Amino acid sequence: MNYIKLDSVYKNYQVDKQELEILKDINCSINQGEFVVILGPSGSGKSTLLNLLGGMDTVTKGKININGQIITNFKRKQLSMYRKEKIGFVFQFYNLISTLTVFENVNLSERMSKYSEKTDVILSELDVSHRRNNFPFELSGGEQQRVSIARAICKNPDIILCDEPTGALDSKTGKTVISVLYNICKQRKSTVIIVTHNASIAKIADRVIELRDGRIINNRVQEKTISVEDVEL
Ligand SMILES: Nc1ncnc2c1ncn2[C@@H]1O[C@H](COP(=O)(O)OP(=O)(O)OP(=O)(O)O)[C@@H](O)[C@H]1O
Ligand SMILES: [Mg+2]
């Protein structure tokens, strides 16, 4: 219980000498192994929240507790270890290393962890094995997206944070990707948090958090979810 807990989290950004409040008084808890969907309009602070959870940005005020550790107290080196060991991150704009092939991009991450899955198995699960030796610039947007998902999951992270993981995918491929993430969540008890504009994905989520203008306006646990097979993306 309360595997992830945010207490009165605020995030401000300074723009043109003006202090903008981007996240305001965020309070929420997430259980281990939950499949969580974060919904909200563009600019509502979804990516900002994900970056804070992933230890890639620091709060202005408030506390983030991850499995008993207060990461908002972490020094730079501890945060780096946290990102490396605990977090798999799927970026909104993929962020693949352009000078490495598909296989190398994914395997790079696999080598960072002792408990890793085989790179080729994961590439095949995400249906990008045939692009294994290509460079990112040779791939379509959807293929790059799937490689970035492979990279995030292959190191077996405790928490998988995905920023619009189906943004560039057609509905069939989107469904494949969501089922891969969902199965990892349920089989390995990884906690999966997905930011999306696609409200259909919310139908399979254990918990749905809605953001509006930097605040949580709804946080609900869904007892009845529909199965991944039945969801229409
Ligand atoms: N580094 C930054 N410096 C200044 N402002 C920022 C920074 N990052 C985000 N913002 C601002 O914070 C607000 C929330 O941004 P964020 O990227 O979290 O939104 P989002 O909900 O992910 O939107 P989208 O759905 O378009 O991806 C936006 O107004 C954005 O311009
Ligand atoms: Mg975003």
From TrEMBL:
It holds the Pfam family ABC_tran. Transmembrane segments: none annotated. GO terms for cellular component: membrane protein complex. InterPro entries: AAA+_ATPase, ABC_transporter-like_ATP-bd, ABC_transporter-like_CS, MacB-like_ATP-bd, P-loop_NTPase. One of its GO terms (molecular function) is ATP binding. Residues 4-233 form the ABC transporter domain. Keywords: ATP-binding, Nucleotide-binding, Transport. Coiled coil: none annotated. SUPFAM superfamilies: P-loop containing nucleoside triphosphate hydrolases. PROSITE patterns: ABC_TRANSPORTER_1, ABC_TRANSPORTER_2. Belongs to the ABC transporter superfamily. This is ABC transporter ATP-binding protein. It comes from Clostridium gasigenes.
